[in-house]
Automatic annotation (TrEMBL):
It comes from the Bacteria. This is HD family phosphohydrolase. GO terms for molecular function: hydrolase activity. The keyword Hydrolase applies. InterPro entries: HD/PDEase_dom, HD_GYP_dom. It holds the Pfam family HD_5. PROSITE patterns: HD_GYP (PS51832). It comes from Halodesulfovibrio spirochaetisodalis. The keyword Hydrolase applies. Keywords: Hydrolase. Residues 142-332 form the HD-GYP domain.
Length: 332
């Protein structure tokens, strides 16, 4: 909130947002999608200006914008679902809205990326990818400003169901946490590439028929082959889009490879698996283990991290030990 209303800030900041002009402009002009409140200096209280969906006159629209410019227009935090729904359509607004808490920004970014990922999974073509790319850049800008913000996202991993969009985002979040822990010196473009690669490591699964993914009984040989081919399919998708850089290739082609050679698609062993491929393998498996799947119950994150550390023949202990230690010491 502005310094003009510092006294009100303490009273209202937990219950209300001071709405930013850029957010207000994203609303329908004549019918705000939520209640608007105006701050009254004389009484140091908020009064209702208009109710959700109320038709505003031209004069009232002008007054709303004037109040907003003066820092006197508020919305209730109880309406956060509606507020967030509008922000996710223009996600870059979270970077300039000083009235949102960091926890709220993380929640908005998660919601926006899930929507974008679902769109891209359903239609992996250039125009849809470009919308996803813009929102990924908002995430990386938010994290570039303070790498420790990744913990806000680690505390918000989706664990209720194993959807490809949520799994992709969980893998990106846990992969980025490992990236920050192990790559102390990196440039912004390295962060951008890592984020995209983690997030799209499993895009080839969008090419696997849903009836195979939904099966609860053991897969037939040809069905199993379709699953194994998803890495190759993912590589084709991203190559076609012109984003087949090294981290992307490793993430897609190596996230199912294992140090002992038991993985797929190429049964690589040891040092034949790149550092980014190893990191993605840990993030991918961790993200899968913490959600319920057709063939396995979900594990609490701490148990999943410990299980991965104990599986040192297949996973790089450099990464699994860091993840396990973080849960042992309650870093999240």
């Amino acid at each position: 909130m502005t310094t003009d209303h510092s006294a009100a800030s303490e009273s209202f900041r937990e219950a209300y947002y001071q709405i930013a002009k850029s957010i207000l402009e994203s609303f329908p002009k004549y019918r705000p999608p939520l209640d608007l409140f105006v701050y009254k200096d004389e009484s140091a209280t908020l009064e209702t200006f208009c109710r959700k969906g109320q038709r505003l006159s031209n004069e009232e629209v002008d007054e709303v914008h004037s109040l907003c410019s003066a820092g006197s227009l508020f919305v209730a935090r109880a309406d956060h679902a509606v507020y967030f729904k509008h922000i996710i359509k223009q996600l870059d607004l979270v970077l300039i809205d000083e009235n949102l808490k960091q926890t709220e920004i993380a929640e908005v970014i998660i919601q926006a990326l899930i929507v974008r990922l679902e769109d891209f999974i359903n239609q992996p073509v250039r125009p849809v990818f470009e919308e996803l790319y813009k929102d990924v850049m908002v995430l990386t800008e938010f994290l570039a400003q303070d790498r420790f913000r990744i913990k806000l996202f680690m505390r918000r991993l989706a664990v209720d169901e194993h959807k490809l969009s949520a799994h992709s985002l969980n893998t990106a979040i846990s992969g980025l946490w490992l990236f920050f822990e192990t790559r102390k010196d990196f440039k912004r473009r390295d962060l951008d590439k890592a984020t995209l690669a983690f997030m799209l490591h499993d895009i080839g699964m969008s090419k696997v028929p849903s009836f195979i993914l939904d099966k609860t009984e053991p897969l037939k040989r040809d069905e199993r082959a379709k699953i194994i081919e998803h890495a190759l399919q993912g590589g084709k998708v991203m190559h076609k889009l012109g984003f087949a850089f090294d981290e992307m290739v490793q993430a897609i082609m190596q996230h199912h490879e294992r140090l002992d050679g038991s993985g797929y698609p190429n049964k690589l062993k040891g040092d034949d698996i790149g550092w980014f491929g190893r990191m993605t393998a840990v993030a991918d498996s961790f993200s899968a283990m913490i959600t319920p799947r057709k063939y396995a119950e979900a594990l609490p994150p701490a148990e999943a991290a410990l299980a991965l550390q104990n599986d040192e023949k297949r996973y790089d202990v450099k990464y699994t030990s860091l993840l396990n230690a973080a849960y042992v010491t309650n870093q999240f």
